[in-house]
Design a protein that fits this description.
Elements (H helix, E strand, L loop, with lengths): L30 E6 L3 H12 L4 E7 L2 H11 L3 E4 L8 H8 L5 E5 L4 H9 L4 E4 L5 H12 L4 E2 L1 H17 L9 H5 L8 H4 L6 H5 L11 H4 L4 H11 L4 H8 L3 H15 L4 H9 L11
Parallel strand pairs: 1-2, 1-3, 3-4, 4-5, 5-6
Helix pairs in contact: 2-3, 4-6, 11-13, 11-14, 12-13
Length: 291
């Protein structure tokens, strides 16, 4: 019986397929992050926040500078988020070693001018103070740091501007600012020009130092919370009890309760969940994120 499945050599050939198979899309480049903070609640919150984005993954957490260096050396991340004050090896001490591996963003409650200056001198690619950014702003900063674009929240940018103006009046710039780009290496090729340039000759150029995140309003100011109240509100939002907050902040539970009463009054809230919702930006009209 003849085989009808094979076309006869003289038979007309079928037209070419007008819909050829397309090659599979190239894999998306995932931004790899190491989070270093001695507070496990902060680490967990940052990890959950960042890992919730499709293009970001937290590859390791660290509780001090030594662990941060070991994690960065092992995982070769794209960005390191680094706290300033940690037991053992602190963030400032670890910073020069970490920037040889990846761009580093300081993510901290420390806003002292001297610390901001030293972090910049040692190669930090950004300085974000808790309470001065939303979740989306933090994610944007992490993405930008990978590309070499500096980010500072308002108080950090203000500290830098004040020192720059003081040094400009004296005829010199702070040590390390001129070599900022070289300290960051290849990751600084797209650094904001107002930071990377070795000389700033006008107030206009000085004013350009404050990047995108620095232009954003602080929720602490919006709710009129003190620095301590904002810190306690962050702990409340993370789910900590009064006892845990007292231990973390080295204050009594009675003092914690007093702070919470003032916080509730300022946030017009009657419960921890309602206050946390407003603080974290889950209620209409609020833009607050983890910080």
């Amino acid at each position: 019986m003849p085989d009808h499945t094979t076309p006869h050599p003289g038979a007309p050939q079928p037209p070419p397929n007008p819909f050829p198979d397309f090659p599979p899309p190239a894999p998306t480049s995932v931004l790899r992050v190491v989070v270093a903070d001695d507070n496990p609640v902060v680490r967990a919150g940052l990890t959950a926040l960042l890992s919730g984005r499709a293009d970001i993954t937290v590859v390791a957490e660290a509780a001090d500078g030594r662990e941060a260096y070991e994690a960065a050396h092992l995982h070769r991340p794209d960005v390191v988020l680094l706290d300033v004050r940690m037991p053992g090896v602190d963030g400032i001490s670890a910073l020069p070693y970490l920037v040889r591996i990846a761009p580093v963003v300081m993510l901290t409650y420390s806003r002292e001018t001297e610390i901001v200056q030293e972090a910049l001198r040692r190669g930090a690619g950004g300085y974000l103070v808790h309470g001065e950014f939303t979740a989306d702003e933090l994610v944007a900063a992490v993405r930008d740091i990978r590309q070499g674009r500096a980010h500072f929240t308002p108080s950090a940018a203000g500290a830098l501007l004040a020192q720059l103006r003081q040094q400009q009046a004296a005829g010199s710039l702070p040590e390390g600012l001129g070599s900022y780009e070289s300290q960051l290496g290849a990751n600084a090729h797209a650094m904001n020009s107002s930071v990377a340039q070795p000389s700033l000759s006008s107030a206009k150029k000085l004013s350009q130092l404050q990047p995108n995140v620095g232009q954003l309003s602080s929720d602490r100011s919006r709710f009129q919370l003190s620095a301590r109240e904002a810190e306690i509100m962050d702990h409340i939002a993370s789910g900590m009890t009064n006892q845990q907050i007292a231990a973390t902040c080295f204050i009594s539970e009675k003092t914690v309760k007093n702070h919470i009463n003032r916080i509730f009054a300022k946030l017009h809230s009657t419960s921890r969940s309602e206050a946390a919702a407003k603080w974290l930006g889950t209620t209409p009209g609020s833009a607050r994120g983890l910080g």
